[in-house]
Amino acid sequence: MDEMTKPQEASAEAAPPAASGLLDRTFGLTERGTSVGREVMAGATTFAAMAYIIAVNPAIMSNAGMDRADLVSATALAAIVGSVMMGLWANLPLAVAPAMGSNVIFTYVIVKQMGMPWQGALAMVAFTGVLFLILSLSKLREKVAKDVPEALKIGIQAAVGTLIVFIALRGAGFVVQNPSTYIAMGSLRSPPVLLTLFGLLLTPVLVARRVPAALILSIALLTVIGFFVPGVNGKMVTSVPSAIMAWPRWPTSTFMALDIGYLFSHFVVALPLLFYFLCAEFFSTLGTLIGVTGAANLRKPDGSIPNATAAFATDATASIVGPLLGTSVVTAYIESITGVQAGGRTGLTSLTVAGFFCLALFFWPIFVIIPPQATVPALVLVGVLMMQGLARIDMTDLGNAVPIVLTLLVTVLTNNLINGMALGTLSYIALEMAVGRRTQIPAMVWGLGVVFIAYAIVIAQIF
């Protein structure tokens, strides 16, 4: 009798205690083996890993002619909305904020190269968010994930990563124009260039040593050093802030400023960019979901992601709200893995991140004085991370290598993502046909090839 009851007693001891308390019932803390304290600590860890976006996103997008102080508020507000939705709707430890990469394309490709007003560019991002929401709530999501070839996805991602690095170095004066070689390194007699060089050496070391909040610490340190480094016009690299803290500022100049009419009157020109934003948002979210839920052991027995539809829909909705506030694509952050490593398992981690972004709104005078020399190292590391997908590709296969290399090099050398995407896609089609795999080319890729050819014809007529 005793032997028969022992398994029952062991089973009873192994069973998790019943959930108690509102937070426990809402987020399933007991079920996922976590606690309120652990979730709050995880949220603080995630925020520290991604807080650089409050400084970097406004620094990039202000080059499109937008008010930098308003962009600080828009960035934080978009992160708050997205992270709260992710926490309450999807109940996943994923933080959400404006996406790196998309903000560079928004500023330097759409606005500065193509001449689209930033109001029209915001409308394009919002429209992409609507498409992504429809995709997220339907079965088309799986079809898109299957049909876009891995070589094209990785080529585009690596090209954007390289473009981020180049633009960051150029913006800080570390890379300059040269009449003989087109580009060259800035003078090492220039104090701002030396400050950038110091940051480029220091920041990867901090990250490699797993120093907590390495990127934001690097930005803070370089900003402080900038108070003592002479820049242009006799001023220091870092200007003195008007205050340390101030009441949160509503993004008046960017809120609801999007121009829907401009988008539809220039729809043919915008179409390739819509495809880029849609793919970038979709596959970035997919990769982040896979990585974070895997690290947290949250996947179901069949390998599926819990609440995946809610997570995708959250990203899509946030990418509609973001442009309404005045920022670019909003997405789940891979830095959320740092919070998972600290024990985060539920949406309470995301709500904690949102709380820290609320606090950051009171420090906007600090964020607006951060110089480009302080943000360059963080941007370079982001670019490096975006190139890591190259390791998954067999570069001895020309069908993979040529589209990727053309996408990457043409993007950087012409400073134009669309040129790289077009040549990469058309070369993929040509090579697949040449080796007798014409029937294996997805219809989506054929359609994209037609779009790029039409785009080239339109641009040739305009310019």
Task: Provide a descriptive summary of the structure in words.
Keywords: Membrane, Transmembrane, Transmembrane helix, Transport. Pfam families: Xan_ur_permease. Belongs to the nucleobase:cation symporter-2 (NCS2) (TC 2.A.40) family. Azg-like subfamily. It is a multi-pass membrane protein. This is Transporter. The chain is mainly alpha-helical. It has two domains: 365 residues, no CATH class; 69 residues, no CATH class. Helices cover 66% and strands 3% of the residues. It contains 21 helices and four strands. Strands 1-4 form a two-stranded antiparallel ribbon. A hairpin with a 3-residue loop joins strand 2 and strand 3. The radius of gyration is 23 Å and the shape is globular. The N and C termini lie far apart (89 Å). The N terminus is likely disordered.
Return the structural class: mainly alpha
Shape: globular
Pick out the low-confidence regions. 1-19
Number of strands: 4
**SSE series:** HHHHHEHHHHEEHHHHHEHHHHHHH
Computed over alpha carbons, the radius of gyration is: 23 Å
For the biggest β-sheet, the strand order reads 1-4
Main location: membrane
GO molecular function, one term: purine nucleobase transmembrane transporter activity
Family: Belongs to the nucleobase:cation symporter-2 (NCS2) (TC 2.A.40) family. Azg-like subfamily.
GO cellular component, one term: endomembrane system
